[in-house]
Design a protein that fits this description.
The protein contains ten helices and 15 strands. By secondary structure, the chain is an alpha/beta fold.
C-alpha cells in the first residue's frame, strides 16, 4: 500500500491532492502546524510540526517513500516588510527542517515533489516561458521562488529525486484568486485590472492535483509548469467570468496607480504578465481535463 507525506495538506491545493490520493487508495500522512487539524485514520494521519521552531514528529515518515511539499504562507496578504520575510522563510524553513530530519535520522525516501510558482518568470507581454528558461530577475516573487527551488534541490544530495511544479492561477471556488475576482463582477462592479493585456496562466484545481500525482506515479524528475495549455489576458479572464456568472462588464479598467494604492507592492500579483507553456508535461503523457478557460470556469462556478 503506497503511503505519502504531504506538507500543506489542509490548504487549497493540498485538500484536492488528498482527495485524489484517497480515491486512488494512496494513504496520506500529513504535517500541520495546527494540533486541532490532526486526524488519525488508517488512510489519513496527521502529525505536528513547527518549522519556525525546528519541531517535527518523525513518525510522519513511517512507511513513506514520497513527499509532496506545499508548505508556505499565503502570498495573498498585504506585503509589509515583515510579511515578505514570512512568505520567504515559511517556504525555506519548512524544507530545511525536512532535509535536516531526513539526513540526521537516516530516513530512506525516493522522491520529493515541491510546489513552486510561475512568479519566478519575469514580467513580459511577449515571452512564452518554458521550463528551461533561467534568466530570472531580482523581483520579490522571483527571489522567493528561486530560494524555494534552491532549497528543494538540496535533497538531490540525499539521493532523493526532486521535482518542482511551478503553479499558475489556481481556479477553485474554495479559495485562491478566483473568488476575489468573481465577487466584484457579481456585484456589477467588475473590470479589467491595469492594461488588461497582461497574460494570466491558469489551471483548474483538479488538473493541478492530478499533475502532482502524475509526476509521482511516473517518477518524473525536474521542473514542470503547473498551468493549462491556453493562457488568457487579464481582460479575457474577467470577460469569461462575467459570461459564466451572467453579469455585464461596463466599468473602465482599474488603473495601475489605483491598484498600487489599494494593494501596495502586492499589486504585482494581478499586474504582471507571465505566459507559460504546458507542453513539457503534455509531451510526457499528461492529458488535461480542462484545456480552455470557459469550460473550466463553468465547472468551478
Amino acid at each position: 500500500m503506497k503511503r505519502i507525506l504531504i506538507t500543506g495538506a489542509t490548504g487549497l491545493v493540498g485538500q484536492e491532492i488528498v482527495k485524489q490520493c484517497l480515491a486512488k487508495n494512496i494513504h496520506v500522512n500529513y504535517l500541520s502546524t495546527s494540533k486541532s487539524k490532526l486526524e488519525n485514520k488508517p488512510n489519513y494521519k496527521g502529525f505536528y510540526w513547527n518549522p519556525s521552531l525546528g519541531e517535527i514528529d518523525v513518525n510522519c515518515f513511517h512507511k513513506v517513500d514520497t513527499i509532496i511539499n506545499l508548505a508556505g504562507a499565503t502570498i495573498a496578504k498585504r506585503w509589509t516588510k515583515d510579511y515578505k520575510e514570512e512568505i520567504k522563510n515559511s517556504r525555506v524553513n519548512s524544507l530545511k527542517l525536512l532535509y535536516k530530519t531526513i539526513e540526521s535520522k537516516n530516513i530512506s525516501l525516493k522522491h520529493i515533489i515541491s510546489a513552486s510558482a510561475v512568479g519566478i518568470y519575469p514580467d513580459s507581454l511577449t515571452h512564452y516561458y518554458e521550463e528551461d528558461f533561467n534568466d530570472f530577475d531580482d523581483r520579490f516573487l522571483s527571489d522567493v521562488v528561486t530560494s524555494w527551488e534552491n532549497e528543494v534541490d538540496a535533497f538531490k544530495g540525499l539521493n532523493i529525486m526532486v521535482s518542482k511544479i511551478r503553479i499558475g492561477i489556481v481556479l477553485s471556488q474554495k479559495g485562491g484568486a478566483l473568488p476575489k475576482l468573481v465577487k466584484p463582477i457579481k456585484l456589477y462592479a467588475g473590470s479589467a485590472l491595469g492594461s488588461g493585456n497582461q497574460w494570466q496562466s491558469w489551471i483548474h484545481i483538479e488538473d493541478l492535483a492530478a499533475m502532482f500525482l502524475f509526476v509521482m506515479s511516473n517518477k518524473l524528475e525536474g521542473v514542470f509548469n503547473g498551468v493549462a495549455p491556453n493562457a488568457v489576458t487579464q481582460k479575457q479572464l474577467v470577460k469569461s467570468i462575467s459570461k459564466v456568472v451572467n453579469r455585464p462588464i461596463f466599468l473602465p479598467a482599474v488603473p495601475k496607480f489605483m491598484l498600487s494604492l489599494i494593494l501596495g507592492e502586492m499589486c504585482t500579483l494581478v499586474l504582471e504578465s507571465q505566459r507559460v507553456s504546458s507542453k513539457k508535461i503534455e509531451s510526457l503523457g499528461y492529458s488535461f481535463k480542462f484545456h480552455h478557460l470557459q469550460p473550466a470556469l463553468e465547472d468551478v462556478l
